[in-house]
Amino acid sequence: MTKNMMRLTSMVSAIALTCMTTPAFADRSNDTLRAAMAEEILNLDYNYTTKREYIILAQLTDATLFDIDPETQQVMPSVATGYEFVDETTLDVTLRDDVQFHDGTLLTAEDVAYTFNWIASGESESNANGVLARWLDNVEVIDGQTVRFHLTSIYPLVLRDLANRIMLRKAGTYTVDGQIDRDAMSSDLIGTGPYRVVSFEPGTELVLERFDGFFGDAPEIQNIVVRNIPDVGTQQAEMMSGGIDWMFKVPLDLAQSLGATPLATHLSGADLRVGFIVLDAAGHTDPDGPLTNVLVRRAINHALNTEEMAQYLIGGSAEAIHTACHPAQFGCDQSSTAYEYNPERARELLAEAGYPDGFPLEFWAYRDKPAAEAVAADLEAVGIDVDLRYVKLESLNQARAARDIPAYFGTWGSGGTADTAAIARIHFSESDRNLSGDAELQDLILSAEQTNDQDERLSIYSEAIGTIADEAYWAPLFSYSANYLTSPDLNFPLDPDGLPRLQNSSWK
């Protein structure tokens, strides 16, 4: 535990003791859920943002063509009522006739076609453009309730993309008085979701109200207020005083400390994010370096006590993993090679590889410093002389792009997509994250996105994940756990995909 965490935990304990007899539960009289987010909220239009916070908000204010059932990972109707593949690259989607925008106007097929064609165009400069650029040619209106998607190639994740990323806008939204306005929805958002924007002060507060015209199941809570509170200590104090009802990304020690009092409830749920070490097997940093030797990479895997890291450093529902994907993702074959924690075997492999006395290793990390330090300590224990470079993410990204990183601690959340494609294509295809140097593996990974046959995709990913494990291109570490603190009066259900859904909250 860091000194700051120790001080904050002590503060929580001290304040909690003074409040034990008079806990400040949520004031339900105005039916308002008050949530805290540390990340500054500056733009309400998820078509022009990224990050988990904006996903949470988009689910409140917007609706997508389809939904993904978090329990089964099956595609479900939402704004769309159904779909039909005319052929492998042509998809017809039928729409509901009762979907209202927050200004009361009905959504039309023209609105849907406009939204997708705009985001797919180069002039949109949308953060979601990269999602559509992989597969979308254009969208045309067939009739009042039907749109046709023309794909550039076979793409098996098209329905997932339609469910996860693109928020629907009225035709012409991003053109104001003949001029492109990419910020048109950044503040005065007009969406189709269960809540509408009442007021928004960027970086400070967002006030939402239940939208009576919502086409789906109405949320139980009338109002949601999202406050930007950057400091976790201030969030904790607000939770204890009854100023907020929900906070997330809570450090484990603090969540456990305050959750043990009557002032808050600690919830810990699954998260699709995984942690791992990427190794420069291709030899970008040193063509003849130790990491180009598979025995060395296997030794590194054997040296890491991932079970203890998951249990004591991440906690909650975190688990050790042995694959380059999350076990819950489609195609993440768990029968692939697993390297048990065995420091002695690691030393033997290093000696066999010609490094009986170890070697120096520059190891980069940008987050979860205790975990990065634990990795360094485990590697030091088998003779590897680790130089831990703990830097900001921007610095790591720049060094990786320059092919100047021999090994780094990375994490990936797959955007909440429970499919191996969401992690494999980024880390083992045409990306500076791919340090394997394995062209055949890259072709194999990409081939899984050239077929709609799910059995074939499963077989491809099984082979690819097996190759990554056998060649030890990664040292997989652990899955993550999401820690929340809530008011004792709030019922906040946790979903297995780890995505917080405030719209499903209710009062006890």
TrEMBL record:
Alphabetical list of Gene3D superfamilies matching this protein: Dipeptide-binding Protein, Domain 3 (3.10.105.10), Periplasmic binding protein-like II (3.40.190.10)
Signal peptide: 1-26
UniProt keyword annotation of Glycoprotein present: no
Solute-binding protein family domain: residues covered: 75-423
A GO molecular-function annotation: peptide transmembrane transporter activity
GO cellular component: ATP-binding cassette (ABC) transporter complex; outer membrane-bounded periplasmic space
Alphabetic keyword roster: Signal
GO biological process, one term: peptide transport
A matching Pfam family: SBP_bac_5
UniProt subcellular location: Periplasm
Family: Belongs to the bacterial solute-binding protein 5 family.
Protein name: Peptide/nickel transport system substrate-binding protein
Species whose genome carries this gene: Pontivivens marinum
